């Protein structure tokens, strides 16, 4: 076989491990739908308590001052310091060449090798990256289909078929309460779970999540060099997002969405 079909991994995977991992992952899923908008809530924590619990640091000895200061060597405007998350995106689309540069740190660096620009347990690389245009009229996008699948080793984009209509995708990722404006691009990090469970079993789920974190931080830093703004997003329902891409939700776990675009500057 020139290319291994994705379901080939099922031959080597323990079905019990898979079923239990799917069940565990589902426990962290949201159900976001207009029909339930007035009957569900995330928590019942007061604003006062939430303010105290947000953004603080965890001290092992809160009643003892056994600290000493750090001499910071890295300036906030350094290339290795990410920008703050974007509050509101503008309606401007971004040029596609900037999208290509954005994902370039994820590609294989050597023509004769398979190692990519981020760590992966056992070099299995179970995380699949989907780059999605959220613009109805995007003259910068290279094809009518709105979703592209990154092939890091081939250094190509695979066009996801049947994704010409952006409305299902926008509804899947932007239906949560609150407004963040109009991000131009959504990058979806989805774990193809058989690719990591067949070798590492339950531990593979943890390794896959670690890999997602490595990838999105690279994207954050690259976005900063390109003058783009970012925001990580988890307010979506897995099954709705999987359906919008055309993925089997028992095999592909969308772990998070990464919005990319230009900052909206209030007048």
UniProtKB/TrEMBL annotation:
Gene Ontology molecular function terms on file: oxidoreductase activity
InterPro entries from the UniProt entry: Bacteriocin_Proc_Enz, Nitroreductase, Nitroreductase-like
Pfam families noted in UniProt: Nitroreductase
SUPFAM superfamilies named in the record: FMN-dependent nitroreductase-like
Domain Nitroreductase: 85-261
PANTHER family named among the record's database cross-references: NITROREDUCTASE MJ1384-RELATED
Protein name, as recorded: SagB/ThcOx family dehydrogenase
């Amino acid at each position: 076989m020139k290319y291994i079909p994705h379901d080939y991994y099922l031959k080597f995977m323990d079905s019990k491990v898979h079923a239990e991992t799917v069940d565990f992952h589902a426990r962290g899923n949201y159900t976001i739908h207009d029909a339930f908008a007035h009957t569900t809530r995330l928590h019942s924590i007061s604003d006062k308590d939430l303010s105290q619990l947000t953004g603080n640091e965890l001290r092992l000895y809160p009643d003892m001052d056994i600290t000493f200061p750090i001499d910071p060597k890295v300036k906030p405007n350094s290339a290795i310091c990410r920008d703050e998350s974007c509050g509101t995106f503008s309606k401007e689309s971004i040029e596609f060449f900037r999208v290509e540069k954005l994902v370039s740190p994820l590609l294989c660096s050597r023509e004769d090798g398979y190692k990519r620009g981020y760590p992966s347990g056992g070099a299995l690389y179970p995380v699949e990256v989907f780059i999605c245009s959220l613009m109805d009229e995007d003259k910068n996008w290279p094809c009518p289909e709105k979703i592209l699948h990154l092939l890091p080793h081939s250094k190509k984009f695979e066009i996801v078929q049947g994704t010409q209509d952006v409305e299902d995708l926008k509804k899947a990722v932007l239906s949560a309460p609150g407004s963040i404006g109009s991000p131009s691009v959504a990058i979806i990090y989805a774990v193809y779970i058989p690719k990591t469970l067949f070798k590492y079993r339950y531990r593979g789920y943890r390794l896959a999540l670690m890999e997602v974190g490595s990838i999105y931080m690279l994207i954050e830093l690259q976005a900063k060099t390109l003058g783009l703004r970012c925001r990580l997003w988890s307010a979506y329902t897995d099954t709705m997002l999987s359906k919008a891409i055309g993925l089997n939700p028992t095999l592909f776990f969308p772990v998070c969405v990464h919005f990319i675009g230009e900052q909206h500057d209030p007048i």
